[in-house]
Amino acid sequence: MKRILIIEDDDDIREAISDLLTDSGYQTVESVNGHAALELLERDRSFDLLLLDIMMPVVDGGEFLRRRAHDPALSAIPAIVMSADGHARRQHKLNRIDCFVKKPIDLQTFLGTVETRLMKGFDSSTGE
Amino acid sequence: MIGNDVMLQHSCTPITDNAFRLLATAIASVRDYAIFVLDADGIVRTWNAGAQRIKGYSEAEIVGKHFSTFYTEDDIKRSHPQRELRVAAEVGRFEEEGWRVRKDGTTFWANVITTRVSDADGKVIGFAKVTRDLSEKRIVEEKLRDSEERFRLMVDGVRDYAIFLIDPNGVISTWNEGAERLKGYSSKQAIGQHFSLFYPEEDRETDKARYELDEAMLTGRYEEEAWRIRRDGTRFWANIVITALRDKTGEIIGFSNVTRDLTERRRSDERLRRANEELERRVERRTVELSQAKSELEAALQARDEFLSIASHELQTPLTSLKLRVQMLGSKLDLEQGKYPSPKELSKSIETIVRQSDRLSALIEYLLDISRVQLGKFTYDFETTDLSVLVRNAVDLWMEPLAAVGCPVRSQIEPGLIGEVDGPRFEQVISNLFSNAAKYAPGHAVEVSLGREGQEAIFKIHDHGPGIERARQDRIFDRYERIIGGASVSGLGLGLFIARSIVEGHHGRIFLESQPGFGSTFIIRLPLNLKRFEAEAKQ
């Protein structure tokens, strides 16, 4: 079973995504911000995908991505960035994160993206 | 007529008859001089063409008459004709210039020479008279003298220009009042001096005066604007024109020098220049102000754009879970196949949907508040309220959420503080301050106090967060200003802006005391008796 780490500060969104992915047959783990996620990833890196919110307290999505880029093992885990801000898509495209989901999330698009990302592995994002 | 024994005075040789006849003929034809002879008594004995022309009498009319006929009444009264003959008889010759009278009664200015004629024994036998009409010459001379005098007086009297003559070597020969006034030298002090006296030291060293005279000699005229020195050593800015003066043969006989003081003009030029500079400075200052205003406006626009970006993010967040939950329910609903979401799923979804709807509605209400504040349509319902109870309730309400982010709340509330407030609005203020503490100082204790100082209630909320640097303290109550920049802290950046608007709406004050590293204290001072406050404010 594929393991997905959800990094999102909004409880209801995180829970809804978790419920959705669980229903779709994935195993999920939740983190409330970038800092908590990095701490968790120190202990456990057995994830197939990271779902990352951008606007978060303590360590935000952007900062998380920068730190991840300096860690090859962490960079090996593919990521999908979720943001309400369309501008963030361009911003993180520049950082060669090609998977972006705009909030509010559309269920079918979201599941499709997750599936594709998992199939492709990290081959399209190894340029980090 | 006159016998051949007669000798003219001064002639040493006796005149022969023949020669005498020739002389007499010559004299008779002279036209420019009246030449005639008087006998010893002053009776006219001969007449010539010149005499007839100048005096108007024919020979027949005048011969045999006394010569005093030619004199003015005044001269006759003072026996001037007799005196004339007496002098001539005594010294041999009398010459004068004086008025004489023509036959028609008009007078003319005459040069008259009367010469004694004696016989061989030295006895006076008569007088030879030569009279010249000087009227025309005299008028011309007088006119010339008058005009020269007038010109000299005019030049002398000119006060605004120094006008003086210098000889070919540069030595001053005349001096006028303007020169005295301008240069401070009297004519006595100036005349005889070299005109380089008025030149600054540096010009004297290079013999500029000589160069200027050479230029004037070559081209007729030299003009310049330059510094000149007064007698007291002060400088003045002058316009100087030196003109070469030549005689009829073209020889240089000197130079005229006309000097004008331009100091005043230079001063007004200077004033104009200064005014221009001032204007330029003002334009520059205004430009700076405008560019500041522009960058302030740009900053305000950027803040507004950031606000809109954050606001849309804030609105999208509840929508995200709302939409996900609804779509998840939808995906589990298949009427044809009789598939429905489980009651547990339904209940959880409804709970989320209601909560997120409330959140959306609160956000929208919040945005509306901002718009009301901006439009000045924020209204208050003041009621007599127990502030102590109001603050206590707020603390109770926030106790749990603050504890969740590691902020234990300690409170010290003086009971029974009654004030005139809009309860819900004031709760909003306290809520915003608690929310800030939760956002910016998680993991640290929060201390709340309510007390009284005179007619004011003092509310304080102190956190032990990072604190706020001095430079930002004044701005944090501004619209869209968030304490920590960037995206790490969500929020619209309007909590403190609204808090201040509400506190000021209660005629109170809200301010911040903070030091980086030592946390922040927000303090509200609120007049308790609003009616009395308003009455006092009106006085």
Short description:
The complex is a heterodimer of chains A (128) and B (539). Chain A is an alpha/beta fold and 128 residues long.
Number of separate strands of chain B:
16
Order of helices and strands of chain A: EHEHEHHEHEH
Helical content band of chain B: 40-55%
How far apart are the termini of chain A?
26 Å
Which chains share the greatest interface? A-B, 29 and 28 residues
Q: How would you classify the helix and strand content of chain B by structural class?
A: alpha+beta
Largest sheet of chain B: 5 strands, antiparallel
Number of strands of chain A: 5
Poorly predicted segments of chain A: 122-128
Shape of chain B: rod-shaped
Overall mean pLDDT score of chain B?
86
Number of contiguous helices of chain B: 17
Question: How would you describe what is shown here?
Answer:
The complex is a heterodimer of chains A (128) and B (539). Chain A is an alpha/beta fold. In chain A, strand 4 (79-83), helix 5 (86-94) and strand 5 form a beta-alpha-beta unit. Chain A is built from six helices and five strands, in the order βαβαβααβαβα. A five-stranded parallel β-sheet of chain A has the order 2-1-3-4-5, sandwiched between helices. The longest helix of chain A has 14 residues, at 107-120. Chain A has helices at 11-23, 34-43, 61-69, 72-75, 86-94, 107-120, and strands at 3-7, 27-31, 49-53, 79-83, 100-102. Chain B is 47% helix and 22% strand. Chain B is built from 17 helices and 16 strands. The radius of gyration of chain B is 61 Å and the shape is rod-shaped. In chain B, 26% of the residues are buried. The chains are: A alpha/beta (128), B alpha+beta (539). Chains A and B meet through helix 1 of A and helix 11 and helix 12 of B.
